[in-house]
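Loading example: each entry is read as four labelled lines plus one structure line.
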Amino acid sequence: MGAPKQKWTPEEEAALKAGVLKHGTGKWRTILSDTEFSLILKSRSNVDLKDKWRNISVTALWGSRKKAKLALKRTPPGTKQDDNNTALTIVALTNDDERAKPTSPGGSGGGSPRTCASKRSITSLDKIIFEAITNLRELRGSDRTSIFLYIEENFKTPPNMKRHVAVRLKHLSSNGTLVKVNTQLLIQDS
Amino acid sequence: MGAPKQKWTPEEEAALKAGVLKHGTGKWRTILSDTEFSLILKSRSNVDLKDKWRNISVTALWGSRKKAKLALKRTPPGTKQDDNNTALTIVALTNDDERAKPTSPGGSGGGSPRTCASKRSITSLDKIIFEAITNLRELRGSDRTSIFLYIEENFKTPPNMKRHVAVRLKHLSSNGTLVKVNTQLLIQDS
DNA sequence: CGGTAGGGATAGGGTTCT
DNA sequence: TAGAACCCTATCCCTACC
C-alpha cells in the first residue's frame, strides 16, 4: 500500500516556503526542479506542494481563531484570570519549531524576538505582539487586523486594546524592531 | 441544537458492513451512494461511516490485533513482506449480528459461517477459529498470525495451539469451508 | 500530455458524551 | 475508565481547464 500518510516535516515546509519566496506561488513544478529544494522535496509532487501551500495559508488565516477556541476550551472552570500581571504574561515564544523558517537565499531567520527586542525596552504588550506575529506564522508577515484578532482572542483585553496595540506597532515599526513589508509587519531578523 | 448523539442501529451497522464488503474500506462515499445502502444510511455521512467502521474494528480487535496491527502500521511504505506473508488472509463474510440483512436488496452475503460449517464436522477448535475470523472483522481478512494471537489471548491455550490451528486452517481451506481468494481466504458462502 | 486550481474525500488524531 | 459518536484538518485524489 502507499504511504499511510506522509506528514510534512519542518524541513520540507521550510523548503516550500523558501521556494515560494524565490519563485512565487503557483510555480510548483519550478520549485521542485530548483536544485536548492529538489533534494528536500524529492518525495513530493507539484500537486503536493500546491496542497500544502494552500493548507499553510488557510492555517495562517484562521490561526488566531483556532488558538483562541482551544485556549478557551482548555481553561478549567474556575481558573479566573485575575488582574495579576500574569494574566498578560506571555508563554515562551515558541521559536522551537520556528527553526524551519523560510531560509531564503541569504539569511536564516533565527534570532529570538525577545533578544533583539529586549534591547529596546519591551513592554508586556510588545511581548504579546511578538507572540501574535510569531504564532500567526504568516509567511509574509501579519497585518494589524490579524494581530488585533489574535490578541483579542487569546487574552482578556481592555476595551481600547486596539489603540494601544496600534500605537505600539507604530512605535516598533518606526524604531526598526518590526519591519514593514508592503503593508505587513515582520519581526526584524537580527 | 446538534443531534443528541445518533446511535447506530443494527440495520445501519449491517448496511455498513455489507457496503464495505462490496466496495472495500475507504470507499465511504461510494458506499453511501450505492442505492443498496443509501436509504438505510441516509442520515449518515461518509465520515460517519469511516468513524463507525473504525469503532467496529477497534472494539472487535481488542487483545490480539494490537501487536499485529501496530507492527503493520509501523511498516514503512517500502518494507518488504517477509515469508510470513499475507497469503493466508481470511475474510469472514458474515457474522451472527448480521441478521438485519434481509433488507438489503439482492441479499448479498448471507449464510452464517457456522451453519455451513456445521455440515462439515466442525471441531471445537474450528468454532474458535471462526470466532476469531468473525471477531477480527478484518476486511481483507485475517492472517494466521492474527488468528493465533486472537485465540491465544482469548482462550486458555495448550502449548502447541499454533500447530493445531494451522492444521485446521489448512484443512478448512482445502475442504472449502474457507475459501482462498487471490491470496486470501474466505469463509465459503453457502 | 504536463501543469495548476479547486472541490471534495479519506485518514487519523482529538474531543465529548455516556 | 472505557467505548461510541462526533469533530478537526492535514493529506491525498479527482476533475476541469488551460
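The helical segments of chain A are 10-23, 28-33, 35-38, 46-74, 113-118, 124-136, 144-154, 161-174.
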